[in-house]
Write a structure and sequence with these properties.
The chain is of the alpha+beta class. Helix content is 35%, strand content 22%. The protein has 5 helices and 5 strands; from the N terminus they run αβββαβαβαα.
C-alpha cells in the first residue's frame, strides 16, 4: 500500500492517477428504520437507523447524524492531508458538527420549508505547532478542498435513478 506522500506525488505527476469511483450499497432491514450500508473493499458495514419516536430502534445513528459525522470526519481527514503538505504538526483536533432542521418539512407538513438542514455549523478546535496565521491558512485550504463541504454546498448534482423490481 503506498504512503500518503507516494499517493500525493503520483497524482501530482499524473492527474489521472487520482481518478476513483466509490460505491456504497444501502439495504432496508426489517427492524424499525434500520438500513445496512456496505462500503469499501474490506467491506465496512454501518447500521443507520432512527430514534424510537420516529419508528426506529435507535440501534444506529440517523441519516441526519451521519451527515454531521461526515462533515466532521472529512474536515479532520482533509486537515491531516493538508497539514502534511504544509508541514504542520496537528497536536489536537475536534470538530463539533451542528445542524438545525425541522422534521415537519420531511413529513410534508409545510412544503415551503427545507426538508433538510437549514443550517450546518461545524466548529473546529485545533492545536498545532504553527503560528495562528499559518493555521488560518491551513483552515482556508480545508474549507475550499473538503469534498463533503464541497458536495453539501451544492457543487455536485444528485441524479436519482429508479429501478422498479417486479
Amino acid at each position: 500500500m503506498p504512503s500518503f506522500k507516494e499517493t500525493y506525488d503520483a497524482i501530482k505527476a499524473d492527474w489521472n492517477a487520482g481518478e476513483k469511483n466509490f460505491n456504497v450499497e444501502c439495504e432496508m432491514l426489517s427492524d424499525g428504520m434500520q438500513v445496512k450500508c456496505t462500503m469499501g473493499a474490506k467491506p465496512f458495514e454501518l447500521i443507520i437507523d432512527a430514534p424510537l419516536g420516529l419508528d426506529g430502534t435507535n440501534e444506529g445513528p440517523s441519516p441526519l447524524l451521519v451527515i454531521l459525522s461526515s462533515i466532521g470526519a472529512c474536515i479532520i481527514a482533509v486537515t491531516r492531508f493538508w497539514a502534511k503538505i504544509m508541514d504542520i504538526k496537528i497536536e489536537e483536533m475536534k470538530v463539533f458538527s451542528r445542524g438545525h432542521i425541522n422534521l415537519g418539512a420531511i413529513f410534508g407538513i409545510d412544503d415551503s420549508k427545507l426538508a433538510g438542514y437549514d443550517k450546518l455549523e461545524p466548529v473546529i478546535r485545533i492545536k498545532a505547532d504553527a503560528p495562528e496565521e499559518k493555521i488560518n491558512e491551513l483552515m482556508d485550504k480545508i474549507f475550499t478542498h473538503c469534498p463533503v463541504i464541497t458536495n453539501f454546498g451544492g457543487a455536485s448534482s444528485i441524479q436519482p435513478k429508479v429501478q422498479i423490481r417486479k
